[in-house]
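At this stage, I put together one protein's amino acid sequence and its backbone structure tokens, which the following lines show:
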Amino acid sequence: MSSIDEIRDIRIKKLELLKKAGLNPYPAHSNRELSLKEAVDDFDSLEKSGEQKWLAGRVMSLRGQGAIIFITLYDGTANFQGLLKKDVLGDKKFDLWNEVIDIGDFVEIRGKFFVTKRGEKTLEIINWNILSKSLRPLPEKWHGLQDVEERFRKRYLDILMNPEIKELFEKKVKFWESMRNFLRKENFLEVETPTLEITTGGAEARPFKTHHNDFDIDVYMRISVGELWQKRLMAGGFPRTFEIGRVYRNEGSSPEHTQEFTNMEFYAAYMNLDEGKRLVRDLYITIAREVFGKTDFETRGHKFDLADEWFEIDYCAEIKKQTGVDILEDEEEVMEKVLKKLGVEFQGKNRERMTDALWKYCRKKISGPAYLVNHPKLVAPLSKEHPTDNRKTEMFQVIIAGSEIGRAHTELNDPIDQKKRFNEQSKLLAEGDDEAMMPDDEFVEMLEYGMPPNFGFGFGERFFSFLVDKPLRETQLFPLMKPKE
């Protein structure tokens, strides 16, 4: 078996033969008149009319011998068969094809349409041109790229050789389209907010830090889809807004986490929590039906049906039920002892981090779909206080397959309360908790001018990865990879 370098050297020689024959191996212009899908769809009329058309695509197979060669072209829309016959094409053009064309090359072919004895739609070629000469061979058809890292690094080959991968990303496009159409029908306005911020807001995560040369200041890549900016728009008179955009979090990787991903957040003035629950459930069901044609799924060892009734789970009660810890009353020492007994890893010994760790242990047993409600104020610094228990907040998270797949709040619009909670987050930052939320005094100032009561919700491509039962990185076109050593 020849090495890649040997194959490349041979193909470079073929490239030179093309030039000597007066053909540009990489022309800027193509004569293509139809996509291959159009050729397939309109085949009957094309055959009947006897028209000669130019088609183009990548050569995916070459078979035959002597004076006849069958080829398969692929252009991203469909496959189509071509037939080269020496007595039709002519000795010079036929022999040149044999000398210079390889699987992987892009070519254009012209001819008339007919059906072979085996019933295959085919173009009998009377002329051809090179469009792009490939210097490296494609992966072997039946085995493709086996190494996961190699698949991610050469995603273009992964997509080319595996139709199911292409279909996955076409579904992902429908996922975002379905979401966008749903929100527009509900009178939400799509907006764009900054991705570079002086203080990160809207979530608790370690941000990426960079430097703005013109202003000579450090800035952060956003960790939420403009939560604090969209709330400013609520104050400015936009009743309903949403944004779909990239988010960056400088934290660990897992099947459910990457450092760069796409999320959606929406905000609706005057919408209460119960109205928000109904809207969110309708959104999830709509996406499932329009993208997958069903509402029942099996993923991560869990089965769930989004069309079922969504039940409520009390945050504090569920932790106490599964671990025995009363997160509102028990001391930190008790929480730490239980976490160690359960074998749960956690960062820092502050109450917020240990509370979060206990919940993450408990959620793994819940298939959902469910609303997680009554979060402690400590883990929800942007939510309104619960009307009957000032230790809790008005919010919910969507629980599916043992994980949180969406977060909603009755948004806090009391500037004094918000300032107090930011101060608590500042203490955590000072104690070394680099995932605590940065205070934003300008946001508090906006609240002092007045912001209407509103409901906010966010989720994103993690939901898609759950519906297709694949790790998040598998559902990203080009996940970040370490450079090869």
About this structure: The chain is about 35% helix and 25% strand. The domain at 4-138 is CATH 2.40.50.140 (OB fold (Dihydrolipoamide Acetyltransferase, E2P)). The CA atoms of residues 127 and 253 lie 52 Å apart. The mean pLDDT is 93.
